[in-house]
Design goal:
Elements: E1 5-9, H1 13-25, E2 29-33, H2 36-43, E3 52-55, H3 64-72, E4 79-83, H4 88-96, E5 101-104, H5 109-132
């Protein structure tokens, strides 16, 4: 079983339910947000209280891109954008504002679960690597 706190923010009830259920079945502690403003209130202003975020781009209230940009400015938490916006420019913009992955609707829940696990695995490897070298980094550029 997996573990970790995940925020799923999407204004489509069927997406929230299917993604939330699947993540819950995998052992994740899932928090659901029904729109951008709800997600914003659950994220708070300080340290991000989640291990991963799944955000829709087009939601009432704050957009997923705005949330992504704000969160990325204060946290390295993995962010997956889950959206109907499938143009190349939308994908590039999403990744450039700070998303770690971009999944277009319609989507496979199994594939999304795999991407969630991959992002969390990378985050754990980064944490382990950082603690092994005492948190020091070398800038070679």
């Amino acid at each position: 079983m997996s573990s970790g706190r995940i925020l799923v923010a999407d204004d489509e009830p069927s997406v929230r339910e299917s993604v939330g259920y699947a993540l819950g079945q995998e052992g994740f502690d899932v928090t659901i947000a029904v729109d951008g403003d709800d997600a914003d209130s659950k994220l708070g202003d300080g340290e991000v209280p989640f291990d991963l975020l799944v955000l829709d781009i087009m939601m009432p209230g704050r957009s997923g891109l705005d949330l992504c940009r704000d969160v990325r400015g204060r946290s390295p938490v993995p962010i997956i954008l889950l959206t109907a916006k499938d143009a190349e420019v939308d994908k590039v913009v999403g990744l450039e504002v700070g998303a770690d992955d971009y999944v277009t609707k319609p989507f496979s829940v199994r594939e999304l679960l795999g991407r969630v696990r991959a992002q969390l695995r990378r985050r754990e490897l980064d944490r382990a690597s950082s603690s092994e070298d005492g948190g020091k980094s070398i800038d070679s550029g």
